[in-house]
Specification:
Blueprint lengths: L7 E7 L7 H14 L2 E11 L1 H12 L7 E5 L3 H19 L6 H7 L3 E9 L1 H11 L3 H16 L7 H29 L1
Parallel strand pairs: 1-2, 2-4
Antiparallel strand pairs: 3-4
Helix pairs in contact: 1-6, 1-7, 5-6, 6-7
Length: 188
């Protein structure tokens, strides 16, 4: 039986505006979660201005600067450890060429559930988009992917981990772009 679609995804705007419909965030998040084999999710995406995300970054992470995205895993320690173990198994199997597609991945691993809050600063996304020559929408969707990957056990503390996160974000964004284009064709 195929995994259920994650259904509990909310988008809240606090002192921030999105340059596109919030439904786009929900669709992208669902595509990313399905690709990663997540069978259930409780996610909130909160869009904040620079001062609010700086306050969160300072209070919870000890970093006194504006950032683009901050992720909070709301699961207990046992559930977090299961995600890290699942991700480690993914890496080993992928390195051996065992995971060719998502359906094989879902057969190899037990269902995965995540729960978290992902805080995103659209103003910082706009600055980064200009710096990297990306659209603001794509940059924000990168942060959606980034937050989900953190909840799946990925980290970005070292240069090697950052490179792996970036590779995975790029993979999810390509998947989302294909999905979005096929949905647009269906509507025509």
């Amino acid at each position: 039986m195929p995994p259920k679609k994650p259904t509990d995804i909310t988008v809240r705007l606090r002192k921030a505006r999105l340059p596109f419909a919030s439904l786009r965030v929900i669709r992208a998040a669902r595509a990313f979660l399905a690709h990663e084999g997540v069978t259930s999710a409780g996610l909130s995406f909160v869009f904040l201005d620079g001062s609010a995300i700086r306050r969160i970054n300072r209070e919870y992470l000890g970093h006194d600067f504006v950032t683009d995205v901050v992720t909070f895993d709301l699961r207990d320690n046992k559930q977090r450890a299961e995600s890290r173990e699942r991700r480690a198994g993914d890496a080993v199997a992928s390195g051996l060429g065992m995971i060719a597609n998502n359906s094989l991945r879902s057969k190899l691993y037990a269902p995965c559930s995540i729960e978290g809050e992902i805080y995103i600063c659209p103003a910082e996304a706009a600055r980064n988009a200009r710096a990297y020559g990306e659209s603001v929408e794509r940059e924000i969707l990168r942060y959606v992917a980034h937050g989900i990957l953190h909840l799946l056990g990925y980290d970005d503390g070292s240069a090697k981990e950052r490179a792996e996160m970036r590779r995975r974000e790029d993979e999810l964004l390509k998947l989302e772009t294909r999905s979005s284009k096929s949905k647009q064709k269906e509507m025509i």
